[in-house]
User: Which sequence fits this backbone?
C-alpha cells in the first residue's frame, strides 16, 4: 500500500514537467508545419526516418536518464557505443559467431564498461565526470585496439594486403530493416523497448525509487537504508548496457563497425535528457520526458535537414532552439 | 575520504592514456597474421637508415591506410626502419614528435602535417639540421622542406564532375553531399566539381554538409529523398558519404534509379563498394605512402628529387 502511495507522488511530479516537455515538442513541430519543405514534412516517410535517426541517440538517452536521476553523468556512452559496434562487427562478421552469442557478449561487454565506471564512482568516490571521462578515453582506445584502427566491414584484409569479401550476417539486415508493412524501423522498436524497460524500472520497481532517492539527497537515502553504492553501480551498468544496445544498432545500420562511431553522441544524449526536463541536479525527471526530448531533438534535426539549412546556421539555430525550449519549460513553472 | 584515492585516480588516468595510445601505435600499421614490424626500442642493428613518420591523425581510415602503405613499401627494403608516431589530431603533439625525431637524429622524416602554419617552423628546424623532410598530403608554408608529395583535390573534384556530366549526358538532377566545408579537401572537391559541371544542364537540387560522416550522409540523403521524387545522381565528397546515401536510397527502395559517386577509392572502402555495385564510381585520393618510401630511398641514396610530386588519381568504375 505504501508503495502505491509513493509511486503516485512520483507520477504527480512526472506529469507536470511532461506537459511542458510536450509543449516544447509542439513548438518544434509547428516549425515543421511552417517550414514544410514543399510538403516533405507531411510525408509519413519523413517521420518514420526521423524516428529511425533518433533511435540510437534515444537508446543512449535511456541509460543517461537513469544516471542523471542519481545526480550523475556518463560521458562514456559514445565511446562504449563505438567499442561495442566494433566488437559486434568483429565477432559476427569476421569471426562468424551466431547472433545469439555475439549480441549477449556485446551487451555484457558494454555492461562491464559501465559497471567499472559505476564501481569507481560508488566504491572509490571518484567524481562521475572524471570516472566516465576516463572510461570514454579508455573505451575509444579499446575500440581502436581491437579493430586495428580500421572499420570492420565485410571486406577482410588478408596477410598480403589484398581483400576478400564475406557475406553480411543476416542479423545486420534484420536490425536495419523496417517492419509492419515498412512503416517502422526495427531500431525504433528497440528504442521503444528500452524506454519501456526504463519505465518499469523507474516507475514500478523499488530500485527505481532508490535511484530518485539517491539523486534527491544521497546522505538521506543512505541513512534510510538505501544501498547507495550498489544502486549507483547499477545505474552506470545499465547505462553501459544501453550503450551496447545502441552500438549494435549503429553497427547494423552502417553494415560495419567503425571505431570512430559515436564521437560526441554523449552530448546529444545529455541534450535529449535535459530538454525533456530531467534535472541535472538529480532526483527529478522520468523516462517519458526523455522520449519527448528525443522527439524534440529528432524533429528539430529533421526540419533543418529537409530544408537544407546550411551547416553554420544549423548549429546556431540548434543552440537557439535548445535554449528556447528549456526557457519555455521554465516560464510555466 | 576522497583524498586517499587521489594517487590511485592519477595512476589510473595515466595508465588509461598510455594504454589507449600505445594500442593505436602498435596495432594500426600491423594487420593480423603478419609478423610485427621491428620494435624501435629493440633497435635491430641491420637496418641502415631510420625514418621517422609523424601522422597527424590515425583516427581517419584514410590515414591508417597511408601508414599501412608506408609500412608495406618499407618492408621490401631491409635497410629501412620506420618509426611511426600518431599525433592524434593535435598540432602541439605533432610538433613534439618532430622535435623527438630531430633529437633522435633520424636519417629522414616523413610528416603528414595537421596544419600548415604552426608546423612550418619545426619542419624548417629539421630541414636546417640536415634531416631531409618529406611532407605528405597537406602542405607547410615556405620552402624549408625537401619534397612535397600530394594529390590535387580540385583536380579530383573536376574529374568527378566531368565523369558525371558525361554519364548523365549533360543534364540531370544531382544531390551533393559535401565534406566538412571548413576543411580544404571539402572546399576543393566542391569547387572542382562545380567548375566541371558549369555550362551543362546539371542541376544541384540539394546540397548538405555531411562532415565526412556516413550516418550524417544517410540522414541528409533521407531528407533529399523525402523532398524530391526524381534524383539522378549523388555526388559525395567521400566514399562513406556515398555509401550512406546508398543505404538511405535502399531503405526507400530507390537505389536502382540513382547513381552514386564517391571520392577516396580506398582498397577496403570505395573499391569494395564499386565492386559490389553500390557505387558507380570512386575517384581515388592516393595516400602517397608508397611514393614517399620510394622518394625517401632516392634521397638517402644521394639522388636529387623534385621539390613537388603530384600523385596521379585513378578512377574506379565497374
Assistant:
Amino acid at each position: 500500500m505504501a508503495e502505491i502511495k509513493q509511486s503516485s507522488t512520483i507520477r504527480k511530479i512526472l506529469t507536470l514537467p511532461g506537459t511542458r516537455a510536450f509543449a516544447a515538442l509542439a513548438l518544434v513541430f509547428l516549425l515543421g508545419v511552417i517550414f514544410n519543405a514543399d510538403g516533405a514534412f507531411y510525408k509519413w516517410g519523413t517521420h518514420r526516418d526521423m524516428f529511425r535517426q533518433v533511435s540510437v541517440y534515444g537508446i543512449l538517452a535511456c541509460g543517461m536518464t537513469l544516471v542523471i536521476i542519481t545526480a550523475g553523468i556518463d560521458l562514456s556512452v559514445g565511446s562504449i557505443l563505438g567499442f561495442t559496434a566494433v566488437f559486434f562487427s568483429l565477432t559476427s562478421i569476421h569471426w562468424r559467431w551466431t547472433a545469439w552469442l555475439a549480441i549477449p557478449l556485446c551487451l555484457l561487454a558494454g555492461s562491464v564498461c559501465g559497471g567499472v565506471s559505476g564501481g569507481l564512482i560508488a566504491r572509490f568516490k571518484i567524481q562521475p565526470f572524471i570516472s566516465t571521462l576516463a572510461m570514454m578515453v579508455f573505451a575509444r582506445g579499446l575500440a581502436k585496439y581491437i579493430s586495428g584502427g580500421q572499420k570492420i566491414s565485410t571486406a577482410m584484409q588478408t596477410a598480403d594486403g589484398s581483400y576478400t569479401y564475406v557475406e553480411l550476417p543476416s542479423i545486420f539486415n534484420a536490425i536495419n530493416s523496417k517492419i509492419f508493412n515498412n512503416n517502422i524501423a526495427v531500431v525504433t522498436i528497440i528504442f521503444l523497448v528500452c524506454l519501456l524497460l526504463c519505465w518499469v524500472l523507474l516507475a514500478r520497481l523499488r530500485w527505481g525509487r532508490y535511484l530518485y532517492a539517491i539523486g534527491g539527497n544521497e546522505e538521506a537515502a543512505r541513512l534510510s537504508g538505501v544501498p547507495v553504492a550498489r544502486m549507483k553501480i547499477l545505474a552506470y551498468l545499465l547505462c553501459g548496457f544501453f550503450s551496447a544496445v545502441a552500438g549494435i544498432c549503429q553497427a547494423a545500420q552502417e553494415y560495419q563497425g567503425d571505431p570512430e562511431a559515436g564521437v560526441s553522441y554523449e552530448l546529444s544524449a545529455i541534450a535529449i535528457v535535459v530538454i525533456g526536463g530531467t534535472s541535472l541536479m538529480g532526483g527529478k525527471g522520468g523516462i517519458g520526458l526523455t522520449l519527448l526530448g528525443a522527439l524534440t531533438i529528432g524533429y528539430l534535426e529533421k526540419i533543418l535537414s529537409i530544408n537544407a539549412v546550411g551547416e553554420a546556421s544549423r548549429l546556431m539555430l540548434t543552440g537557439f532552439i535548445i535554449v528556447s525550449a528549456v526557457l519555455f519549460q521554465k516560464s510555466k513553472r | 575520504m576522497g583524498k586517499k584515492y587521489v594517487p590511485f585516480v592519477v595512476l589510473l588516468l595515466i595508465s588509461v592514456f598510455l594504454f589507449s595510445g600505445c594500442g593505436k601505435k602498435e596495432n594500426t600499421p600491423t594487420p593480423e597474421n603478419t609478423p610485427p614490424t621491428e620494435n624501435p626500442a629493440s633497435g635491430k642493428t641491420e637496418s641502415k637508415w631510420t625514418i621517422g613518420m609523424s601522422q597527424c591523425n590515425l583516427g581517419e581510415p584514410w590515414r591508417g591506410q597511408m601508414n599501412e602503405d608506408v609500412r608495406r613499401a618499407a618492408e621490401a627494403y631491409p635497410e629501412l626502419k620506420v618509426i611511426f608516431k600518431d599525433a592524434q589530431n593535435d598540432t602541439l603533439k605533432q610538433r613534439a614528435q618532430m622535435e623527438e625525431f630531430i633529437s633522435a637524429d633520424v636519417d629522414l622524416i616523413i610528416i603528414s602535417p595537421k596544419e600548415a602554419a604552426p608546423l612550418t617552423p619545426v619542419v624548417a628546424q629539421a630541414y636546417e639540421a640536415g634531416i631531409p623532410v618529406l611532407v605528405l598530403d597537406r602542405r607547410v608554408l615556405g620552402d624549408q622542406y625537401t619534397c612535397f608529395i600530394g594529390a590535387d583535390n580540385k583536380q579530383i573534384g573536376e574529374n568527378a564532375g566531368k565523369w558525371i556530366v558525361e554519364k548523365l549526358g549533360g543534364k540531370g538532377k544531382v544531390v551533393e553531399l559535401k565534406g566538412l566545408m571548413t576543411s580544404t579537401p571539402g572546399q576543393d572537391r566542391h569547387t572542382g566539381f562545380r567548375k566541371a559541371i558549369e555550362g551543362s544542364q546539371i542541376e544541384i537540387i540539394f546540397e548538405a554538409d555531411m562532415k565526412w560522416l556516413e550516418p550524417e550522409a544517410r540522414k541528409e540523403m533521407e531528407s533529399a529523398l523525402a523532398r524530391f521524387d526524381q534524383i539522378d545522381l549523388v555526388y559525395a565528397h567521400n566514399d562513406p558519404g556515398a555509401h550512406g546515401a546508398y543505404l538511405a536510397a535502399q531503405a526507400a527502395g530507390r537505389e536502382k534509379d540513382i547513381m552514386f559517386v564517391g571520392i577516396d577509392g580506398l582498397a577496403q572502402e570505395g573499391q569494395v563498394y564499386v565492386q559490389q555495385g553500390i557505387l558507380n564510381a570512386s575517384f581515388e585520393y592516393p595516400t602517397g605512402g608508397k611514393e614517399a618510401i620510394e622518394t625517401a630511398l632516392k634521397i638517402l641514396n644521394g639522388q636529387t628529387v623534385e621539390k613537388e610530386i603530384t600523385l596521379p588519381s585513378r578512377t574506379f568504375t565497374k
